[in-house]
Amino acid sequence: MPDNPITSWLYPVILKLSKKHPAPSPNKFSLKSTRNVLLLFHLESNSYRNTIHDFVKEFESMGIRVSTIEYIDQSNPDSFELKERHHFNLAKKDLNFWGLPRKSFRQKAFEAPLDLVINFSLNNILPFHFLVGVSGASLKIGFLENDFINAYDFIINNMGNNNLKEHKDAIFDYLNRINKS
What we know:
Helix content: 25-40%
Low-confidence stretches: 23-27
Structural class: alpha/beta
Strand order of the largest sheet: 3-2-1-4-5-6
Number of helices: 5
Largest sheet: 6 strands, parallel
Mean pLDDT: 78
Order of helices and strands: HEHEEHEHEEH
Distance between the termini: 35 Å
Number of strands: 6
């Protein structure tokens, strides 16, 4: 359970919401039948830009529609524009009193049913955990955050490794492996 009092209160709420919004289909996840992917990220440095572009391009080369949500904070006010690729910026103005994305933002971001959600941020960003929980995606992937481990189907333990290219490759390796079984 998180140490922050607000996060402590929101943690069970997010887990409850993720159970209220189950995957639309009880079937096993299949990359071949995936139509829509949501990629959540926060640019900790400019070196991450190429990895994000590669991630998007790899999915698009498979005919998969990719939406992206970038968390914009005060330390990194510049936007990473991917307008042609259904890109959204999540900034403080998009958050409610509790620090969670407003309903209007969620409606824009979730305009199409999602098959896969990937929280590709190495930082513990509460609005991202919330979005993953309410997405209704068939498969939810994220980095190990002990507080929110139950909100995800597949957890990546980065063990201090901040090389996003390696993590991207590991995710695609995993997605390809589960489709062979």
